[in-house]
Structures are given as C-alpha cells and as structure tokens.
Amino acid sequence: MSISIDQEVINWLLAGDPSIRWQTLRDLCSAPESVIEKERSKIESEGWGKRLLSFQDPSGMWDNGLYTPKWTSTTYTLLLLRRLGLKPDEKCRKSCQLLLDNGLYKDGGSELLPAIARSFLVQRLNLPRFLSVEVLSPQA
C-alpha cells in the first residue's frame, strides 16, 4: 500500500525541529543516508534535543531523580531523547551508567522506586530500551 503525502505537509515537517526533519527525510523523502545523518546530528545542538540536554545536571541526572519525578526524571528524559533520535554521546552514556549502577533490583528489573520491594514490568522493558547498543555503542 502506497501513501501519498502532499508536498505542503512534507515542507511543513521539514521546517520543524531536527528530530522531525531527519525522520521526515528518512521516512517520507527517501533522502540519502548522508543527508539524513547530517540532519540527525543536529539534535544535540538545536531545538528540543538541545533544550532537554541543557537540563541535565553535572551528575548526569535530570530533575534530581532516576525515575521520579515522573516524566521529567532521567529515565523519561533518556527515553524521549532516544525517540527524538539523539545520537549516542558521553552525557547520555553517563546517565545510562547511573541507571545501571543505581537502578537495578535483585529480580533483574529496575530499582527506580526503592520504597517498593519489587520492580515493575514496565521498568524491566524500559531500561533495555535506552541502554540499547545504539545508545551505549562507542562506535556510533
């Protein structure tokens, strides 16, 4: 099934944030890989990606927490940055290491809510999502 996208819509998407532009180039424009990657590399230095990274504290956390406060903590900010397409960098690797060092529970899940004696399935699924080879790979 082929979907036809109006050029006006594509132009509107391409006028947006780098995190939207690189995916538009990849998914709707069939742009060359070099063009896509050039646009994707701007996420760290422009727009939403730059803004989110600016809130990271020197320890590598966001909003003083690994999992809470909900939606603004390290966990959710890393998930959002990954979805935006941020390329692996040292700041995010530092945050991932914090999660590995301080957020794993004895049952293999994440201990991001230490007051609870067990981990939650959703956290068992989220942790590998941003600790993926794509995020931690030194070659990327």
Kindly describe this structure.
This protein is mainly α and 140 residues long. It folds into two domains: 1-42, no CATH class; 58-136, no CATH class. Helices cover 51% and strands 0% of the residues. The protein is built from eight helices and no strands. The protein has helices at residues 7-14, 18-27, 33-40, 47-54, 74-84, 90-102, 121-130, 133-136. It is elongated, with a radius of gyration of 17 Å. The protein starts with 6 loop residues before the first helix and ends with a helix. Residues 120-125 and 133-140 have low confidence and may be disordered.
Summarize the helices and strands and which ones pair or pack:
Layout: H1 7-14, H2 18-27, H3 33-40, H4 47-54, H5 74-84, H6 90-102, H7 121-130, H8 133-136
Helix pairs in contact: 2-3, 5-7
Structural class based on helices, strands and sheet pairing: mainly alpha
Q: What is the count of helical runs?
A: 8
Order of helices and strands: HHHHHHHH
Unreliably modeled segments: 120-125, 133-140
- Alpha-carbon Rg, integer: 17 Å
What composes the largest sheet? none
Count all strands and give the number.
0
| Share of residues in strands | under 5%
Helix content: 40-55%
Shape: elongated
pLDDT average, as an integer? 81
Count of separate structural domains = 2
Q: What oligomeric assembly is this protein in?
A: single chain
Q: Kindly report how far apart the N and C termini lie.
A: 33 Å
